Amino acid sequence: QVQLMESGGGLVQAGGSLRLSCAASGIIFSIHTMGWYRQAPGKQRELVAQITSGGKINYADSVKGRFTISRDNAKNTGYLQMNSLKPEDTGVYYCYSRLTNEYWGQGTQVTVSS
């Protein structure tokens, strides 16, 4: 059974930092593309960052220079380091993993207060 489990969300003041983790099980994590989406209230889910199995990284323009995605294949875990957080970064953050199929975590809430 494939499972992705996010952790690390919470409430932080603007300018603060959070580190999200995504622990994967039931898949060969190292060969999957993984990444993070977020969904703000009343808005569509949007891609935040993605890292391929080969290490190619993409970021949404809105988070470039502030967020860093990484992965530790030995731990089957992906990370999203979020610095200089803004109120507009508030939302539910979901990690996903994709090869031929796509898998999603349950989401973790990030709230940035002004």
Provide the β-strand percentage band.
Answer: over 45%
Nearest-integer average pLDDT: 96
List the secondary-structure elements in sequence, H or E: EEEEEEEEEEE
Number of distinct helices = 0
- Count of DSSP E strands? 11
Radius of gyration: 13 Å
| SS class | mainly beta
Q: Name the overall outline.
A: globular
Determine the N-to-C terminus distance.
40 Å
Low-confidence stretches: none
Largest sheet: 7 strands, mixed
Name the helicity range.
under 10%
Q: Could you please describe the fold and organization of this structure?
A:
The chain is 0% helix and 54% strand. It has no helices and eleven strands. The strands form two sheets. Strands 2, 4, 5, 6, 9, 10 and 11 form a seven-stranded mixed beta sheet that branches. It starts with a strand and ends with a strand. The relative contact order is 0.32.
